[in-house]
């Protein structure tokens, strides 16, 4: 027995995804009053509001649960289409909602999944989250997959290793000349400003600890991968940067290593729903193949 | 009359900025029980909790107000130090909390403020926010300055124009060959996947509207400036990219213009507290001088 009228759920998804009733209606080829009526009917059926009406309508908690369900059903319907091609009425393209750590999104991710998305006509809806929040979204069913540093699968999910990102401690030549005129001594690093991505970024702490330096250090906070590189190049501080993000800067000498050869490898894992259907399984296979070439092997 | 014991407020600031009691204590050179006691004493004085105790302690609403006050006092104290140098006990370096739009942080920002921060020993605590949220934080006193596209000053703040970022509609040659084998026709753009930064990013809509195309279009969602460029290079979609972010990709032909010469200029404004002290005023002067060279003039 099918409990839901999926036309009503599609209206909810369109309003939220398009960020408003007018644009949602446009996306579905409906009038604005028609889409409003569908949302009201949906709310009458479930007996609760599904949207918080504001300039940008947000789903209520129940609304979010319904949207997660819509995403799962869409993925499973996608599997059916190869057997029942007439099901495909030229409706919206497949949409995958995924959580990624910022540095993956800024470096290898697009090259690893680009061909797959182009060939299968998949649209990605990406959210950028540090690992704990990304996994929380997996658990809540808000995203179908997640790239992060945690190897612990969530309930209902699988987890496979992708490889590790290699970080190097870098700064601009001007920064080094200013703070370390006699060469970089690890003990002095803590007194020169570092750059930290955010409160959860422990890479700079680990780098200092690996060099035998303990205690606090002064730092800027910059929650943007590319901003982090720009601040480093601009001589504002030193920081741990994925080597693949700054190949050009290293070649041109715009950034140099503080302690040559001193690296930190951060293992990355791909979390995905068990019941995500064929599309998610195919993406997983594609991702595993490509990521291995773009990342370094996970140690141990 | 001084109402507050600033030692207690400094303890609160350290716990929040360092993301925990242990690291906060370390930063102040205190034991963990000493810093806990200070927080408890502060809460006893104000009669309310100032922190929500969790793995990562978060300030309560009152706690946030106290932190904003600490930041303002620190800025004003900074002004005093040039007259009363003995006030400077080698304590924490000046810290400026600012909100920036993602594309500024990913491009011109660091080059525009790098020298200033290095010379004055200023540490930046940056938050990345779209314009409405950034201005809300200005209004709440959570940030001392904000770069965004809104020209309306908030209460207690000033607003000065910086210049405009120039965006071009770009895609990879492979993407263009796949979707537009006979050349890019604007009317067909809406049927090839676009990339959109987030629900508030209207640049792709404006670009299509400028080309006389109305209605919806299919798109990926990618809330990362550098991820956006990587997706474009990877052939996943077309999108509006700041030209200064992809000079190399354009020169090497890794990205090409969809409609040559068709640009969107986004004016940027610097919002800052009126009572932010000398440091903020000097940063403003420095920023205005440098940004003008890195951005294009604001039209009209």
Alpha plus pi helix count of chain A: 13
Outline of chain A: elongated
CATH architecture term of the domain at 165-266 in chain A = 3-Layer(aba) Sandwich
CATH fourth-tier homologous superfamily of the domain at 165-266 in chain A: Periplasmic binding protein-like II
Helix content of chain A: 40-55%
* Topology of chain A as a string of helices (H) and strands (E): HHHEEHEHHEHEEHHEHEHEHEEH
First and last CA, distance of chain A: 50 Å
CATH class of the domain at 165-266 in chain A: Alpha Beta
Low-confidence stretches of chain A: 85-92
Averaged pLDDT of chain A, please? 87
What's the oligomerization state? homodimer
CATH topology of the domain at 165-266 in chain A: D-Maltodextrin-Binding Protein, domain 2
Give the largest interface pair and sizes.
A-B, 52 and 52 residues
Q: Could you tell me the strand content of chain A as a percent range?
A: 15-25%
The total count of strands of chain A amounts to 11
Family (chains A, B): Belongs to the LysR transcriptional regulatory family.
Protein name (chains A, B): HTH-type transcriptional regulator ArgP
Keywords (chains A, B): DNA-binding, Transcription, Transcription regulation
Function (chains A, B): Controls the transcription of genes involved in arginine and lysine metabolism.
Descriptive account of the structure:
The structure is a homodimer of 300-residue chains. Chain A has 300 residues and is α/β, with parallel strands linked by helices. The first copy, chain A, has a domain of 102 residues: Periplasmic binding protein-like II (D-Maltodextrin-Binding Protein, domain 2), CATH 3.40.190.10. The first copy, chain A, contains 13 helices and eleven strands. In chain A, strands 3, 4, 5, 6, 9, 10 and 11 form a seven-stranded mixed sheet that branches. The longest helix of chain A has 21 residues. At the A-B interface, helix 2, helix 5, helix 6, strand 4 and strand 8 of A face helix 2, helix 5, helix 6, strand 4 and strand 8 of B.
């Amino acid at each position: 027995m099918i409990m839901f009228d999926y036309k009503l759920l599609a209206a909810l998804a369109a309003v939220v995804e398009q960020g408003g009733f007018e644009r949602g209606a446009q996306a579905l080829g409906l009038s604005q009053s028609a889409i409003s009526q569908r949302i009201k009917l949906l709310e009458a059926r479930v007996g609760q509001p599904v949207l918080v009406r504001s300039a940008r309508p947000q789903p209520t908690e129940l609304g979010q649960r319904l949207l997660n369900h819509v995403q799962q059903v869409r993925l499973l319907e996608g599997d059916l289409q190869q057997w029942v091609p007439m099901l495909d009425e030229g409706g919206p393209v497949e949409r995958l909602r995924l959580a990624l750590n910022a540095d993956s999104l800024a470096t290898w991710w697009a090259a690893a999944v680009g061909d797959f998305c182009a060939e299968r006509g998949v649209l990605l809806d990406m959210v950028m989250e540090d690992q704990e929040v990304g996994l929380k979204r997996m658990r809540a069913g808000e995203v179908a997959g997640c790239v992060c540093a945690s190897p612990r699968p969530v309930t209902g999910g699988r987890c496979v290793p992708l490889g590790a990102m290699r970080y190097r401690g870098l700064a601009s030549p001007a920064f080094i000349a200013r703070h370390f005129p006699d060469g970089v001594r690890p003990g002095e690093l803590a007194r020169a400003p570092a750059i930290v991505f955010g409160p959860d970024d422990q890479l700079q702490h680990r780098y200092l600890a690996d060099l035998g330096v303990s205690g606090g250090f002064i730092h800027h906070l910059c929650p943007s991968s590319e901003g982090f590189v720009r601040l480093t190049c601009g001589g504002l501080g030193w920081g741990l940067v994925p080597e693949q993000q700054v190949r050009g800067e290293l070649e041109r000498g715009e950034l140099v290593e503080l302690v040559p050869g001193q690296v930190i490898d951060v293992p990355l894992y791909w979390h995905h729903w068990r019941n995500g259907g064929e599309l998610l399984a195919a993406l997983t296979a594609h991702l595993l193949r490509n990521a291995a070439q773009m990342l370094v092997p996970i140690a141990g």
